[in-house]
Design brief:
By secondary structure, the chain is an alpha+beta fold. It is built from three helices and four strands. The protein is globular, with a radius of gyration of 14 Å.
Length: 116
Amino acid sequence: MSQLVDNDRAAAGAQAKQIADVADKDGTPFNLYVFAPASNANMRAVAYSEEGDTLLAFTFTARTKAAYDANFPVFVGLIQKYAREIPGSLRQRAQLITLRAFKRTRRQTPILGEEA
């Protein structure tokens, strides 16, 4: 996992800072890192963990510090609700929410957690 973090640090071209870990629903810790350029634009948080031989990386990206600050709690909440054995319908719903959040960010429509 440390190699994955190091690769992300190198690719980010931004300052990387480790913040407090967050545990998922199963109690598995996720290491959280914030990648922030000096301009505070395009901020990114990544939560890393391992499940057996699988490396997990949940990523949250915001174009501004204000958008990051407003939506970071939603990202943490998503990690806290994650479980290794999520029933299929819940896993599909989580993927759909992620996809919608991505599309909204790309179109600069309401931010994650707000209704359109």
